[in-house]
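Hey, can you fold this?
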Amino acid sequence: MFSHLHSLRIQQIMTHRSLALWLIGILLMWTLVICTGSWLHFNAHRAQMQRVAADNIDHIGKLKATQISQWMQERKADAEVAEFQPLAKYFLLKEESPPSMRADLQNWMERSEKAYGYSALLLFDAKGDLRLRTQNAEALWQNPLAISAMSKIAQDVSRSREVVFIDLHQQPDKSAHMAFAVPVGISSQVDEPAAGVLLFIIDPKHFLYPLIQTWPTPSTSAETLLVRREGNEVVFLNELRHRTGTALTLRLPVGRETHLAAALAVDGYEGITESVDYRGIPVLASLHKIVGTPWFMVAKIDQDEIYLPIHEQAKVTVLVAILLILLAYLGGWMIWRQQKLVSSRLTASLIDQERSQLRILIASIPNLVWLKDINGIYLTCNPAFEHFIGTSETKLIGKTDYDFLPQELANAFRTKDEKVMADGKPITDEAWLSFADDGHQALLETTTVPMFKSDGSLIGVLGISRDITAQRQAEAAVAQRTQALESGRRALLSVLQDLRRSQAELLKFSLAIEQSPESIVITNLAAEIEYVNAAFLARTGYQREQVLGRNPRILQSGKTPRSTYDELWASLTSGRPWKGEFINRKANGEDYIEFVQIAPMRLTDGCVTHYVAVKEDITE
């Protein structure tokens, strides 16, 4: 009998060992399949997102480069028409022109300036003396350095007898200008200079800069840049989104070793490239030469913004992969354990051995899970926590620790919760606590972490406690651990459902503002408009891009008393809301009366970040 039992024992050991090796091989293969599949899925999705982003910025870059090229061709054509302007020729050639001729020429210059969107027109004779100017050129006339530079240009253009484009440059007052210099009164004698030069001054802030500095889709980092090359440097011609005071002042070295997108553009590279921008941040950029100009267009977006969704998804994918691997290993372990248990029943010694092993796996550690808001009010808990607190979840929700626990213990819990929310970091501690259901004490290891919504706002604190007082028998430990995991799963599902409900509420609030029949305007502390709803656009006749970033004074008709604005700012700067009436003007020039309520927007710490205005049309 003993020999038979011994043979059976050897056979079971060999079978058990073969099964273990087989399970290990299967689990390793399963792990490899999951990891490889997750990696391939991540790379495929990442490549797809890069292609979509590349197509988007390439389309935007090409479109803006084409628009600028066409705009420059139109401006040049407009200026070249003036080359054959007879009034300017006769005015310059006659030593004493009649007043009527001067007046007619002045009127033509004023009309041309307004019709073609120039900021100023100046007429110089061949000697570089200013003979006539539009009213808008008054500021330039007051600047001796600017007039001297333009006089020199006029003399050179008069001798060359050709239309000359004067690239973007910075005036002594730090403003940016560009111009076309057009010779007028050209003689048939080839070596004779033109009678004079018409200088068409263009302010890039009127069309060029707004076109460059707008992006057609919502983005936190995307922007377009206008650059040109000067020697071994690339010059940024417009103000940048992430850095101020850069137009015509920011210069960076050219060289492909720098991997700078703007440097690659001025070095002749066109198309899509992964490089860095002026901040040294990795970007995906589309580079284009602007035909007919010395300029280059760079349309770019941060790579972090492109890949943010896939990175968030990758976290979920990793968690799912880990869960599948753990489930596979758990299943393999359970098969292996079951086989071992079945095999052990064949002999009394194996049965005794299995019973001994099962007695080791007795104890389990039930986890307590709960969630509170920022005021310490319970939002949810699991059944294990119900045993500790001594009440059901339905009775616990909406109440605080002070409703169930002694004052001293409730104060300690509240102090810890406040520290976690203030520091934004988890805290793990141990404490002996009594369970309210049966009065027993247990040493609990508690981890308290801050919980945030998807928009970054604080929900409250999540607590998880683990009983570390003792181990129970192995059979009880397995059952309790399974129950604790299931309870934890339900609690986490409940938390996720609460988060989804919060997100739905936030979406409804956003839709309510956008679809409100009353005009709603939100500005920052500098009174720059950051949001308007559809009712505002319908009532005023403005387009959204016409008002974003602008001051609400664009609506002023001049008929609202100054005292009304003084009272408004006196209230807002002291942190108080204000209400009153404005006589404003729509985009089509029509005046209307509206009743306005304006209030400061505050963070939870009381700091004012924005102003919100609700407007009602009371014209009728």
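Oh, and this one too while you're at it.
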Amino acid sequence: MLFRSSNKLFFFNTIEFRPRQTGNNEQLFRLPTALERVGDFSQTLDNNGALYNLIKDPNISGTCSATNTTACFKDGGVLGRIPVSRLYGPGLAILNQFPLPNLDQAAGTTYNYRIFTPIVDTLTFIPAYRLDYQASQRLRITGKWDGQTARVVTAVGSIPGYNDTLQKFPLSFNSSGTVNYSLTPTTFLEATYGLNQNRLGTPPTGTFSNRNNVVCPSALAAQVANCNMGALPFPFTGDIAMNPAYYESKALKEIGVPFLVGDTLQMQPLYTFNGTRLSTPPPNLTFPGFMNINRTSDVVIGVTKIMGSHTAKAGFYVNHSYKAQNFGAGGNGAPSFQGALAFNVNTSNPLETTFPYANAAIGVFNTYGQQSAFVEGSFVYNNVEWYLQDNWKKTRKLTLDYGIRFVHQTPQYDTFNQVATFLPEKYSIGAAPYLYVPGCVGGANPCTGNNRQAKDPRTGALLGAGSTSLIGTVILGSGDGANGMRQAGNGISNTGYLWPWLAVAPRFGFAYDVTGQQKWVTRGSIGLFYDRPDGNSVFSTVGNPPVATSTQSQWGLLSGLANSQFKFGPVPILTTYQYDSPLPKDLQWSGGVQIALPLQSALDIEYTGRSEEHTSELQSRFGISYAVFCLK
């Protein structure tokens, strides 16, 4: 739509509609069968569609094989059937939450559940608006708004109704308003304000995203105690507190997700079933890795003054950024706050049943880890800059551009003071935790096979066969897990790191017409620029100790989680920013010549270079130069 009134008002509007159809995607899963859900694996098929009913009883020493079933489960004489007295209620609840198989698994296939997801109609809108108003010969006002949104519909999951998700906040937009005013015939003022925003994240919305809604069928629950997921233990807790001041707390409450009850997250763990004998397991109900809001606002004010051969400018710029984002789904080497529960087959596990669903049925796990807290960073920063510059046409042949920019750039920091950084001078070797070290039965060298084991360096005690994966991990309770760490506002700045208060960036350029006839023109420039690092360099700093820690257990029974065979803390991968850090800076330069050629053509030869210092990228880059030759 275009509207014009009295040559003063101009209005433009357009809306693009993008209807789409999604779905009809084939989904294949190997789900627990009706028999497996009650602990009967006598008819179980493996990931080749072959019979596998050799379910090892960890309480019986010996082997469970086709030629020797001494140590196999065989309740009532049925090979592969687990007695009711050995079944673990929460593990059965895990198996019973999924739909029943809708086909018989065929030989040579990996699945017993096949569907095509339903077709869903979606509609995306992309509106744009522009308004120009010439209030007078001296005053002009301009406004712009463009964005993208969509009809809010549930995104059907790979198992419809089970792992559906919802994007409740699809609107993203960019907006700005500008005022141009002529103070005098040679002095002009321009002021602009801009606001941009988007919101991301698609949390699960199914009933079973809250683990307390997962219960066994009544007949099974009458036989097996605690046949519900509310009884499942966690390394820390299954009820993870969520700060009500967090953006995500407010957003999740607006969405109405089942797994947030009051200010407590009550989600299921993330399961691992796949691997040996099972390759198409059901999906997890995962908290979005990045559920966030991103908002920036900018103010730019500039004044231009024409003074003979000079065009002078002065300006002021403010940029404010706000980003609220959770500390990933794990990250920093830690498992998720939901917990990460692995039932996959591990032949080193002395409690192994040799089939993932059977492990769940009796409550045997391979590993079980959890991060101690849900952490959301509320990150903000401010850039305040001002500048002076001049374009001076010194002679008919020579034009000079020169100026200076002053930069006040604050760190990007978390307003909840959850950033933690490592200070080497605060690290005490005496308070450091111990790590498990390599050891060998009998001190043999070389050490091979099960003789190689993790060893406690304090006592020299070996942890036993199959413990090699613990070598290099932290011995829990052996020291200070936050040794050398300092949290924002606790003896250090509340921003978590420091930058210089003010930086100065000079720039200079010239253009020289060698012949005075624009047939041979040389140009050159050099300037210093200050950069703001990518936000990913700081977003994970809220997940460092002591704000969040993690623990991991290996090889145990869920019914006795505190007594798992091995319990350790993974060595964290700290994400920190140098505390007293210089501003990242970028020196750029260029030079070139343009030569007029016959036949209305021209030769353009340019050289550009740059040198970066104090960047936060993983790979430093210095003195990168480019040469460009162009014939046109």
